Amino acid sequence: MSKQLLHMVIGGELKDLSGTEFRDLSAVDVVGVFPDYATAHAAWKSAALRTVDNAHTRYFIVHLHRLMDPENEHSDDQHE
For labeling, which of 5, 39, 49, 77 is most exposed (least CB within 10 Å)? Predict the structure, then answer.
């Protein structure tokens, strides 16, 4: 069994397209937490496609495993 590398997908409308600050934190869409990058990427893509008509809405993949274990932040993350 491979090592669990948690990822979270979140998104919402941004204040400015050049940044990452959400317009309304109470409206942030928490898509979910996923056991690996591939699953998170599929969820990210689905959410992004649902909101393609709103140019100010962006979704992000947060690498939770890096926050939980910062000493090994680059290990086992082979998605790029």
Answer: 49
3 state DSSP class of 41: helix
CA distances for 65 relative to 21, 37, 50, 57, 61, angstroms: 22, 10, 27, 25, 12
> Which one-letter DSSP state was computed for residue 1?
-
In CATH, what number is assigned to the domain containing residue 18? 3.30.70.2400
Three-state DSSP class for residue 47 = helix
Q: Which domain holds residue 31?
A: 7-72
pTM, full prediction: 0.82
* 80 vs 76: CA distance, rounded Å: 12
Residue 78 lies in a domain: no
At 63, list the tokens. 């690498």
